[in-house]
Design a protein that fits this description.
alpha/beta, two-stranded antiparallel sheet, 10 helices, binds uridine-5'-diphosphate, binds magnesium ion
């Protein structure tokens, strides 16, 4: 369970709003919107801002940077608001609590107005210097340009190995091909963003949803750097949930696996039955009561049943979450967004 924390409102600077009503957009549409999700990133937010804006001012004529504060409990919000005061290209969406990385990205997309959008981690693991290459491929007619991690520096072997396995398993199981070794660091054209904002599912695996949408996609290969400062905000439990969301949102293979398990155990039990009957009729004297085999068969079938019920439960739980139709996230405040005349019509969030 994520910690629930309500950051203090900053009166005067902000336009309150709640997702589900009207979504503020920036005034005139810039070429590029950069989305940066932030969760307890007080150590990296300033260096990230400086490096990012240096690259952007050299590579694109107009841009906006949308910071999404995902219920940070450190000084992230304070620093973000300070930066917004001095740079009006910088915008801030402040969540009412921690909603998670994928929903932070979603909120940024909902309120972005650039002709294309780049999603980038705050911790400088994804180098902003790759953005000009992505823009080049976008100008050449691609709708999605995703970053492929050629090398992951400074991450534990456990994370590297599990990530490698996960992306490959997912690729085999998913109904749409999801490129391996890619994260959310990517450029997305407005058309794709338009489709993505229509998809209001809760268990969000944004990179999979982008693959599902289709259009012309290309890649840029880059070396993933070490985190600039601070610790990963994806501890093992969160990473596992994310991986399960990815598999269950894009694949029904686990359900089929459940029936396969059932079928296999039924076949094995049937063969055992025949074996038992044959033994009894051919060598009645050698048949021992055989509690061990009974016992292990019960355990085996019980285990298989529990696994299948568990898999069903995972899907049913997700169906329950979806039918509640709650808003995906709640915004405490928007900073530097304007909703004056001439803005795009406020977007209705289903
Ligand atoms: N993040 C977020 N909400 C969360 C967890 C992470 O907004 O609940 C942000 C985090 O601040 C960072 C990005 O998502 O900008 C990726 O997180 P992190 O770098 O910790 O993940 P890792 O690179 O270790 O997989
Ligand atoms: Mg990181």
């Amino acid at each position: 369970m994520p910690d629930i924390e309500t950051p203090e409102a900053q009166p005067g600077l902000v336009t309150p709003g709640v997702n589900g009503t009207d979504q503020p957009r920036s005034g005139s549409a810039p070429t590029l919107s950069v989305l940066v999700p932030l969760y307890n990133e007080e150590l990296v937010i300033r260096p990230m801002y400086e490096r990012l804006t240096r690259v952007l001012s050299q590579s694109v004529d107009s841009y906006e940077v949308i910071l999404v504060n995902d219920g940070s409990r450190d000084r992230t919000l304070e620093i973000a608001i300070e930066l917004c005061r001095s740079d009006k290209k910088l915008k801030l969406i402040n969540f009412s609590r921690n909603f998670g990385h994928q929903l932070a990205i979603t909120a940024g997309m909902d309120s972005s107005s650039g002709q294309c959008v780049v999603v980038i981690d705050a911790d400088l693991q994804d180098p902003p210097e790759v953005i000009p290459q992505m823009l080049e491929k976008w100008r050449a007619g691609n709708h999605v340009v995703y970053g492929v991690r050629a090398k992951r520096n400074g991450e534990s072997w456990f994370k590297k190995v599990t990530a490698k396995i996960f992306y490959r398993v997912l690729r085999r199981m998913a109904a749409v091909p999801i490129p391996v070794d890619t994260g959310d660091f990517r450029l997305i054209d407005r058309r794709v963003i338009g489709e993505l904002t229509k998809m209001r599912e809760r268990a969000r695996f944004v990179r999979g949803m982008i693959s599902w949408i289709g259009f012309k996609q290309d890649q840029v290969v880059f070396e993933r750097n070490e985190r600039f400062a601070g610790e990963t905000k994806y501890p093992l439990a969160k990473m596992l949930k994310f991986a399960v969301d990815g598999v269950l949102s894009f694949s029904q293979v686990p359900l089929k696996l459940a029936s396969a398990f059932g079928f296999l155990s039924a076949t094995i039990s049937f063969l055992f039955m025949i074996y038992g009957l044959l033994q009894k009729s051919l060598h009645p004297e050698s048949v021992v009561p055989g509690w061990a085999s009974t016992f292990s068969a019960i355990l085996f079938i019980g285990g298989v049943q529990l696994i299948c019920v568990g898999i069903l439960g995972e899907y049913v739980g997700r169906i329950y979450d979806e039918v509640k139709q709650r808003p995906l996230y709640v915004v405490n405040e928007f900073v530097n967004f304007s909703n004056s005349a001439g803005d795009r019509a406020p977007q209705k969030i289903a």
